[in-house]
């Protein structure tokens, strides 16, 4: 209960000025705000990395088509009516399967699709590289904070398992 007498306010048997009262109220609001902000659960680095990794997997899954390898142009040279002639360009998709290099001719009508498929594979490689980097960061965080490690799910106790009739 506060009683106002002139420029002073009596609070719990203590004489307080208006300025002191305003300052005390401001400090109270600041302390309240700090408490609220501090108690709001902020996403930690591990969960942020986990979300980024999930987003990368979604992006990888969205790539419906891809082709490994590279395209090269070939020109054929020969003679036509006794004169040197050049034919082409012919496009060849080259890729490695195991220890072999496989070459496949690409027709002009399929060329834009194959080029797009190769770009999708390059994008997939970049996403996979970033996925590996994020997973490594998560591993370092797990090593630094053991409570982040996945907890194994406990198996049922032997006594609760149903026994087969003999």
Provide a brief overview of the structure.
The chain is α+β, with helices and mostly antiparallel strands and 166 residues long. The protein contains 3 helices and 6 strands. The model has no long low-confidence stretch (mean pLDDT 80).
Molecular structure report:
The protein has 166 residues and is α+β, with helices and mostly antiparallel strands. It folds into two domains: 2-39; 45-145, no CATH class. It has helices spanning 18-39, 45-62, 111-144, and strands at residues 2-5, 8-11, 14-17, 70-80, 83-97, 100-106. The protein has a three-stranded antiparallel sheet. The chain has a three-stranded antiparallel sheet with strand order 4-5-6, covered by helices on one side. Helix 2 runs antiparallel to helix 3. The mean pLDDT is 80.
List keywords for this structure.
166 residues, alpha+beta, three-stranded antiparallel beta sheet, elongated
- Describe the sheet with the most strands: 3 strands, antiparallel
The number of distinct β-strands equals 6
Radius of gyration: 36 Å
Number of discrete helical segments: 3
Shape: elongated
| Unreliable stretches | none
Estimate the helix proportion, in percent. Answer: 40-55%
Broad structural category: alpha+beta
Spatial gap, N to C terminus: 81 Å
Q: What is the number of independent domains?
A: 2
Q: Per DSSP, what share of the residues sits in E-state strands of 2 or more residues? A: 25-35%
> H/E series, N to C?
EEEHHEEEH
Q: What is the strand arrangement across the widest sheet?
A: 1-2-3
The multimeric state of the shown protein is single chain
Average pLDDT confidence is 80
